[in-house]
């Protein structure tokens, strides 16, 4: 009962409670409680929006990260420039499970928890090629529920500039363990049939990282998508087929994520001008949850949000929040392209040096 109550407190309060007794200090340090606290804090989750903004100067668009301070989004005017809150001005992604991942040159990674202000530089990676030949980077972060500690999966794809092609056969997979602060090489999976050049961010769910990847060559108008899953405990990759609607679909017409705590797809039906939600409540079995009524002047899904709502984009490149229950649409007054949303969850994760 006490653990349930404590899991609902904000990070700032729990950091003060560590001084109450040794058992509470150890509880707040345990990965299982950290994971429980992440799930329990859903009502306080804030929105982070990443997009390319060309409103000031169309010739020189800039990447923007906006943190919306009101978790309910009742007042969308309350926002901050997230880039100003990050301690290192390098390429960063996230947050994922409450942590930002920063890439410094390709062979060095730093993690930052902006709830606790902890910053950690991971040991340097040993790459098989030089940094200039790195083409894409793919990663996943999540809890190994059997060992009860977190792992980071890091996949590097190389490019041969002289041959002008991606070296699909020379991808490297690294696994970082937070328990001993070390990297190790992972062998035993062939990536040749997957196009990892167009992979979106990782979705962690039930002890596994999931990526939506094109099966075969990527095409901007029509792709065959599958889910590539990595079990954080057994350390095995697995391919999971999506619903049949993903066999041939435009990349901009589908997004993958969590909806009501289930792996789900938000798919735009261009012909009917509506959105379908498919969920996997039972393993390998997809069910269409519902279809919206036709929505005019929209062209793409952006991502799931809270309380059954989801983000979509208008055909004039404006960000909209849609509530399928009330059919209400909120204009976020942000115009641009390449919209991506993230859940800003407060995490107790301690990045010990």
Automatic annotation (TrEMBL):
This is F-box/kelch-repeat protein.
């Amino acid at each position: 009962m006490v653990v349930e109550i404590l899991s609902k407190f904000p990070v700032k309060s729990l950091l003060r409670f560590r001084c109450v007794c040794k058992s509470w200090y150890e509880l707040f340090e345990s990965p299982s409680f950290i994971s429980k606290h992440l799930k329990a804090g859903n009502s306080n989750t804030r929105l982070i929006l990443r997009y390319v903004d060309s409103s000031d100067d169309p010739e020189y668009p800039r990447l923007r990260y906006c943190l919306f301070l009101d978790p309910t989004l009742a007042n969308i005017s309350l926002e901050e420039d997230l880039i100003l809150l990050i301690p290192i001005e390098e390429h960063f992604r996230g947050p994922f499970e409450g942590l930002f991942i920063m890439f410094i040159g390709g062979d060095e990674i730093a993690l930052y928890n902006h709830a606790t202000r902890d910053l950690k530089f991971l040991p340097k990676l040993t790459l098989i090629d030089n940094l200039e030949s790195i083409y894409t980077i793919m990663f996943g972060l999540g809890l190994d529920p059997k060992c009860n500690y977190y792992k980071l999966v890091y996949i590097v794809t190389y490019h041969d500039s002289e041959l002008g092609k991606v070296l699909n056969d020379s991808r490297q997979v690294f696994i970082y363990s937070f328990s001993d602060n070390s990297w190790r090489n992972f062998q035993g999976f062939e990536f040749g049939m997957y196009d990892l050049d167009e992979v979106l961010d990782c979705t962690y769910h039930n002890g596994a990282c999931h990526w939506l990847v094109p099966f075969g060559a990527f095409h901007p108008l029509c792709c065959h998508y599958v889910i590539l899953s990595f079990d954080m405990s057994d350390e095995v990759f697995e391919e999971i087929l999506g619903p049949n609607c993903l066999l041939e679909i435009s990349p901009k017409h589908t997004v993958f994520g969590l909806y009501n705590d289930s792996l789900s797809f938000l798919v735009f039906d261009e012909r009917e001008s509506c959105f379908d939600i498919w969920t996997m409540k039972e393993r390998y079995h997809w069910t269409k949850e519902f279809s919206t009524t036709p929505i005019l002047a929209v062209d793409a899904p952006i991502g799931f949000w809270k309380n059954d709502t989801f983000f979509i984009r208008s055909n004039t490149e404006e960000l909209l929040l849609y509530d399928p229950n009330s059919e209400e649409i909120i204009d976020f007054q942000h115009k641009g392209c390449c919209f991506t949303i993230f859940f800003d969850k407060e995490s107790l994760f301690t990045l010990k040096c």
